[in-house]
């Protein structure tokens, strides 16, 4: 679909800043250069917009260094994302807002990471080791492990998408993408313009996770087939390396998204986003627009 707007890269000679965010409970979080903004609907239908300055670690020189920035982005997504989710839950339920203790925040992040590693990395490894007596090739073993990992991931996304509350969050995810797409196309951030854009976006975390799963096959294949415990430890220890490479691949592919080769690389991740996004209603677009406008205004000061 074409739009009568100018692509953001055509509006300025300077290197553009890529805004992004995530869906939260009854709202959207957007991340700018200097701050984050969480726009959440209260039970009475009013919109609560909460802005918070970014910690220095997410704005420093390290955030621009190849591969290092991938690890920082992953840490940022986990900590800021979890904080935004907890904040949105309180606003949406009209609970009294309190500052989230750091120990609680990191505890939730640690449990989330442990669950993800156990489900998407250790479980495929254990299943593959059960089949290894029938597999002569190390490479074939790792490819099978990677395919099992992808199947588990798709089943997981499909199952959680059956829950009404999660489907609503996926609607806010679609709204976030539509608003970012409209902004990067240089279009006015109004509902009538934004709703015409796609719910898929080349820099989505879903596409990033797909890249991670493909790159994991290559990285783990280099280690051969050591003992089970060494293999489990490698799945944990190499995760930051895989995430760093995955971020660079996703970033590079997104930068050259109009290139035919890049389109092929991006296609599976964009297709996978159909499981994590829904077409949003006008209120969901309103939440995403207000969050993005808030961080854009903060960046002007």
Task: Report on this structure.
Helix 2 (68-92) crosses helix 9 and helix 3 crosses helix 8. The chain is an alpha+beta fold and 301 residues long. It has one domain (8-300). It contains 11 helices and 4 strands; from the N terminus they run αββββαααααααααα. Strand 3 (35-41) and strand 4 (47-53) form a beta hairpin. It has a 4-stranded antiparallel β-sheet with strand order 1-2-3-4. Residues 7-13 have low confidence and may be disordered.
Number of separate helices:
11
Straight-line N-to-C gap: 35 Å
Q: For the residues shown, what is the average pLDDT?
A: 88
Proportion of residues in helical segments: 55-70%
Report the sheet with the most strands, covering strand number, pairing sense and barrel closure: 4 strands, antiparallel
Query: Structural class from helices and strands?
Result: alpha+beta
Shape: globular
Strand order of the largest sheet: 1-2-3-4
Order of helices and strands: HEEEEHHHHHHHHHH
Low-confidence stretches are 7-13
Task: Describe the structure using short key phrases.
301 residues, alpha+beta, globular, four-stranded antiparallel beta sheet, 4 strands
Q: Any chance you could write out the topology, listing elements then pairs?
A:
Blueprint: H1 8-11, E1 20-24, E2 27-31, E3 35-41, E4 47-53, H2 68-92, H3 102-131, H4 138-160, H5 164-184, H6 191-194, H7 205-221, H8 228-237, H9 239-255, H10 260-272, H11 282-300
Antiparallel strand pairs: 1-2, 2-3, 3-4
